[in-house]
Amino acid sequence: MTKLNKISNTKMQAKANNQTQDDVVYCYIFDAILEQRLPPNTKLNEESLSEIFGVSRTIIRRALLRLSLEQVVDIKPNKGATVSAPTIEDAIQILKAREITELAVTELATENCNQVQLQVLRNLVTSENEAIANNDIGKGIRLSGEFHIELAKMAKNAPLLHFLRSLVSQTSLLIAQYEGSNNSNCSQDEHSNLLNAIEAGNKEEALHLMDHHMQHIRANLNLNDDATSSDLHVVFSDIIRSRA
């Protein structure tokens, strides 16, 4: 495909979705991070992305800046942009912030529940379960994130929605970097059970289920300093002990 065709296609897609070219590029990169096709520390070369999307480097730069404001991309002077690589301490703070935010979202979503948005959420659960059944883990994680973002929309609180969107993408980075041996995807029943409680107007049960849900996500991440250390003596401590 020629560069002209790439530009034309990007413009047509932006027009069809009532988006700017900046939005289209941002969404593609954001989805690639959510689906873990761009793992932590991946260098995001402006020239390469400009050629791939067939747009100016100015548009690429604006999209990357937007992602950096959501803390999923790091931009450093003279070094360019890379996908963020949260430390263990970062991970602990991100998870705590998300737990608090999700509880606030759940409370408001229960108060503002409507059938149209509930159906959108149930459709996402169905798609997520299908992706997991097909072993499409990246897509499953992305759809799980979309579920939480859509739930925030039902809460009808714009600042919470904006903050949660950033936390969802950062959590995906944590899964990519610190996923343990267990399946990091949410239990297939957790989202459905949560929606049932919200639809019934049972705020206490909904909050309990969301708290359990967040603890499940945390439990599937290996945030043990020893297990992720770059110190060879720590990594191979079992060998050292066996020789003692």
Q: Indicate the CATH class of the largest domain.
A: Mainly Alpha
Structural class: mainly alpha
Strand order in the largest sheet: 1-3-2
Write the CATH homologous superfamily of the largest domain. Answer: GntR ligand-binding domain-like
Average pLDDT level: 83
Shape: globular
What oligomeric assembly is this protein in?
A: single chain
Q: Give the termini distance in whole angstroms.
A: 62 Å
Q: Helical region count?
A: 12
Task: Give a quick account of the main beta sheet: strands, pairing sense, barrel closure.
Answer: 3 strands, antiparallel
Describe the protein in words.
This is FCD domain-containing protein. Residues 19-86 form the HTH gntR-type domain. The protein has 244 residues and is mostly helical. The protein folds into 2 domains: 3-83, Arc Repressor Mutant, subunit A, CATH 1.10.10; 88-219, GntR ligand-binding domain-like (Four Helix Bundle (Hemerythrin (Met), subunit A), Up-down Bundle), CATH 1.20.120. It is built from 12 helices and 3 strands; from the N terminus they run ααβααββαααααααα. The chain has helices spanning 3-16, 21-34, 46-53, 57-69, 88-111, 115-133, 137-155, 158-178, 190-199, 203-219, 232-235, 237-243, and strands spanning 43-44, 73-76, 80-83. It has a 3-stranded antiparallel beta sheet with strand order 1-3-2. A hairpin with a 3-residue loop joins strand 2 and strand 3. Helix 5 packs across helix 7 (137-155) and helix 6 packs antiparallel against helix 7. The longest helix has 24 residues, at 88-111. The N and C termini lie far apart (62 Å). Residues 1-8 and 226-230 have low confidence and may be disordered.
